[in-house]
Amino acid sequence: MVDEQRQEPQDENLEAEQQETVAAEEDLVARITELEEQLAAAQDQALRAVADAQNARRRSEQEVAKAHKFALERFANDLLAVVDSLERGLELSSDEDPAIKPMRDGMELTLKLFTDTLARHQIVAVDPHGEPFNPELHQAMTMEERDNVEPNTVIKVFQKGYTLNERLLRPAMVVVSKAAAGATGGTIDEQA
Length: 192
What we know:
Number of domains: 3
Shape: elongated
Distance between the termini: 115 Å
Oligomer: single chain
Pfam families: GrpE
Strand content: 15-25%
Structural class: alpha+beta
Helix content: 55-70%
Order of helices and strands: HHHEEEEEE
Subunit structure: Homodimer.
Strand order of the largest sheet: 1-4-5
Subcellular location: Cytoplasm
Number of strands: 6
Number of helices: 3
Mean pLDDT: 86
Coiled coil: 25-63
Keywords: Chaperone, Coiled coil, Cytoplasm, Stress response
């Protein structure tokens, strides 16, 4: 009987220890689960931070490339007035007058130097004479009736346009043909 009485407290102690062990294991499992969730969240944040940094770097590289590509825009616009003046001077001067010939030759060489320099920097002239009107590259100053030319064709260029790296720098100012009154023909884009 004494053995039985000793046995009961031992069983109770053993049961209490087992319950404590089970409770401790459950606490550990809960703690492990919590830590795993925190680790997953931290890994996700780290991946997002790396992706954000890469995107920011890529955006800044693109902005720098764009800035380099189009940095000449304002300066080029200022130079276009000089090119226009040289072209106008050549148009108005006679190549048959021997007194003007040396000056005209100098103007031609200067204009060639200017246009070559512009071309090296991807500044390209838009001279659309005889081409169909393109509102993305041309600015229609007026329209004239012409029987011998397709409607919506550039028949005269007042001022050449220019592009910088294939982006419009200045539109070409042009005269566009339209069908003669009473003639039936293609449609005319008078909204241009």
